[in-house]
Amino acid sequence: MKKLKVAVIGAGSISDEHLKSYQNHPDVEIYAVCDLNEERAKRKGAQYGASKIYVSYQELLADKEIDAVSVCTWNLSHAEISIAALDAGKHVLVEKPLCKTVEQALLMQDAVKRSGKLLQVGFVRRYDANVQMLRSFSEKGDFGEIYYAKASSIRRLGNPGGWFADVERSGGGPLIDIGVHMIDLCWYMMGRPKVKSVSGNTYRKLGNRAHIQNLSYYKAADWDPNLNTVEDLANALIRFENGASLFVDVSFSLHIKEDEGSVKLYGDKGGYVIDPSISITTENHNTIVSIVPQVDHQGFHGDSAFQNEINHFVSCVQTGRQPLSPVEDGVEMMKILCGIYESAAMGKEVYL
Ligand SMILES: NC(=O)c1ccc[n+]([C@@H]2O[C@H](COP(=O)([O-])OP(=O)(O)OC[C@H]3O[C@@H](n4cnc5c(N)ncnc54)[C@H](O)[C@@H]3O)[C@@H](O)[C@H]2O)c1
Q1: I need a surface site. Which of 165, 202, 215, 236 has the fewest CB within 10 A?
Q2: Looking at the record's lineage, which domain of life comes first (predicted)?
Q3: Are residues 104 and 212 in the same domain?
């Protein structure tokens, strides 16, 4: 079989997960790497054996050899690059969030329909083995009707700065960066119910905390102590038309003792925890029981989830199958995220 020629656009931190996983795939050739920063593109290209290096994504997309692209740029350009790629006849794997606004999301959906090409959204949490296992238990009815979910991802000191802290390039702070993973994961596990309304709050109280000393944390490449236009903390209550609800809170910065992460879903026959480590609680013979599935990784395992995501993308391209995380789900997520920002700005619940 002819190898699939792929290109990665945006050669920053997350591109390594894409490039490593493509490199491991026997049916893929890493053909090109593109970044606005030529040095970075050249370094990544050399590391993963790409034959072509581009600084302009337009020039890359004009290259007829390329079958598919991963879009790993700032959120600002996800829509523009993905639409151009689809129109140039390439299949697209775009990092989360799908884009910055609902309008952009709908244009991306139109481009998928128009081009007949595939777009997979990089909702990597869906591709984790534990998530797929629990999803199959759920589909077999083990948890009954899931009516409540609760997700939290709280960083004590974790505003990465750079483009992440620039609302123009990111679209927002922890809500659009981390909240998108939490909300999508719960929504997917709940069976993608139709959203009725959202009520959210965002806070900008602590800033980027550039003054903090004696404690290291991840900083984006173009970190600037003076640039921060995003929220520190967001919370939201999401109501679904089937009566189910989801509560979520996420932060870049909060006066909490240590980082916390939890994802929990509750049904009328049983409940389960995904983060920080999987467990199930149910009833058996009039007794409450807790079950700990014996699996390779009790918590989220990034490397294998990214490998599964890339394997799935390649397989969908080869077979024409619809991806597990299609553009429609990216659109729905943008409606929820933008609805939460709108609700927070207006100080009231927003009906979608
Ligand atoms: N799935 C995950 O868990 C996960 C984790 C981290 C980041 N991400 C997503 O991946 C994307 C990139 O994040 P990152 O952490 O790698 O950021 P990064 O800053 O490390 O890298 C982004 C790169 O994109 C390049 N770039 C920006 N605009 C470009 C353009 N128009 N053309 C070519 N190159 C361009 C930048 O020069 C930079 O090198 C974001 O959308 C982010 O939300 C996803």
Answers
A1: 215
A2: Bacteria
A3: no
Count of other CB atoms within 10 angstroms of residue 58: 11
**120-158 tens-digit pLDDT:** 999 999 999 999 999 999 999 999 999 999 999 999 999
Query: Which residue's CA is the nearest one to ligand 1's atom 5?
Result: 14
Ligand 1 centroid from CA 165, angstroms? 13
Task: Report which of 182, 221, 8, 219 is spatially closest to residue 95, judged by C-alpha positions.
Answer: 8
Q: How does DSSP assign 135-184, residue by residue? A: HHHHHTTTT-SEEEEEEEEE-SB----GGGG-HHHHSSSHIIIIIHHHHH
The CATH number assigned to the domain holding 55 equals: 3.40.50.720
How many angstroms is it from 63 CA to the middle of ligand 1?
A: 22
Best mutation site among 9, 72, 100, 155 for ligand 1 pocket (most ligand atoms within 8 Å of CB): 72
Q: For 85-121, write each residue's pLDDT tens digit.
A: 999 999 999 999 999 999 999 999 999 999 999 999 9
Alpha-carbon gap, residue 149 to 247, rounded angstroms? 6
Same domain, 187 and 225: yes
Residues 119, 130, single domain; the answer is no
Segment 219-275, tens digit of pLDDT: 998 899 999 999 999 999 999 999 999 999 999 999 999 999 999 999 999 999 999
The answer on 140 and 212 residing in a single domain is yes
Residue range of the domain that includes 13: 4-125+306-325
pTM: 0.97
The closest residue, in CA terms, to atom 15 on ligand 1 is 13
Q: From the CA of 38, how far away is ligand 1's center (Å)?
A: 15
CATH code of the domain in which 345 resides: 3.30.360.10
Overall domain count for the chain: 2
Q: How far is the CA of 120 from the centre of ligand 1 (A)?
A: 16
